[in-house]
Amino acid sequence: MRFPSPPALLAAIAVLALTSCGTGSGTESSGGSVTLTIAANSIPGGKNSESANWIKQWVIPEFEKTHQNVKVLFQPSGVDDEQYKTKIALDLKSKAGADVIDLDGIWVGEFAQAGYIKPLTEVGGAAVEQWEGWSQIPQAVQGLGIFDGKKYGLPQGTDGRVLFYNKTLFAKAGLPETWEPASWQDIIDAGTKLKAAGVPTPIQINAGTAMGEATTMQGALPLLAGAGSEIYAAGKWTGASQALKDTLGLYQQIYGGSGLGDPKLQQEAKGRDKSFAQFAAGKIGIIAEGDYFWRSVIEPTAGVAPMKDRDQAVGYAKIPAKEPGGGIRGQDHVSMSGGAVRVLNPFSKNTKLAWELLSFMHSAAATKAELAGQARISARSDVNDEVLTGDPMLKYIADEVLPITAYRPGLAVYPQVSTALQEATAAIVSGKSADEAAAAYQTKLEGLVGGAANVGG
Q: In the 8-state DSSP scheme, what is residue 315?
């Protein structure tokens, strides 16, 4: 099922009062040399400064060393993401812009449907499929740049979602130090024991609209995947299916009066921040979050809610499917990931050379240079094996979670669908049943995506 060109994106372009500021894609200079350009929403000294510096100080000089007749230029931006998105869309609509372009993975389907980007093999030729890097990027991670089964972009860094748990509270509740839940019932059982041991909030799975996309990515979508479904698949959006009802049913078990979760926390404007602080203070037993939580929230020295004993007191486990084998692709465990991609401009005058630049930017050497000694998860398994040895948690994400992960659909209407899904979880927190919340979601979804014909049951 194909949808019409994304109205939000096209409307933004129609009213945008500026002209393309690209240098022209892959133009030949008078001296016979070729100029290639890279566009990214990063700028030295500003937004995503580290990435900008890597492009200017490493990518460009290293690529030019091996391509004597090529001059590479960088088009930096340091603007709001939506402003950058609209500028890139305008460039591509005008058949102009940079040869290699950074995009948020959530935009890939929207740009593909509008005809602004094309599959890599159509642009870069046979060399694309022969690239050595594909064997180093797990199939699930490649999904960040895939739309309708075709590869449109190369994934940059990514992340993964897991269940974090407090080992001290687990010991108090008689739960194992190494916890490996195999089903949703295992989560509920652990929560019940934590409650009996006096833990104030046994389970925290983000819900409601106050937490925004964190509700969708940390809670609803991983659980939906665990129930065997994705929010969008085979050209249809998932409506009030059994998988959705099962997902909302788990929310109901946690927030429907059992005392396993804190309904008020889900409704507060700073509820997610409070959940961070409460976990760090030993008041939450289990929390569903991404590796950002480990790296930046409870990081012992510079975290938002630092835990000095993080490495000893915090455990982590994969999110189980509802039942073993019941997740998407028949998986026992599931996750969700986000991230950015780089794409080729289909209107480049030097598409094969542009592919050489793009693939070079995603080589092992370039990826390590971009990390600059930091322990962060890249899309490449060989790089992760090398740079994550000092952080067992991030290595766990790379080795165990990325191969089973999934991504949001890169379609223009997705943010509205996500909000509707958040509203469904909010209804549960407010006392509605799973069936009632699912039925209301179905009605909203049909209105968003063009009717029941675009919704699967």
A: E
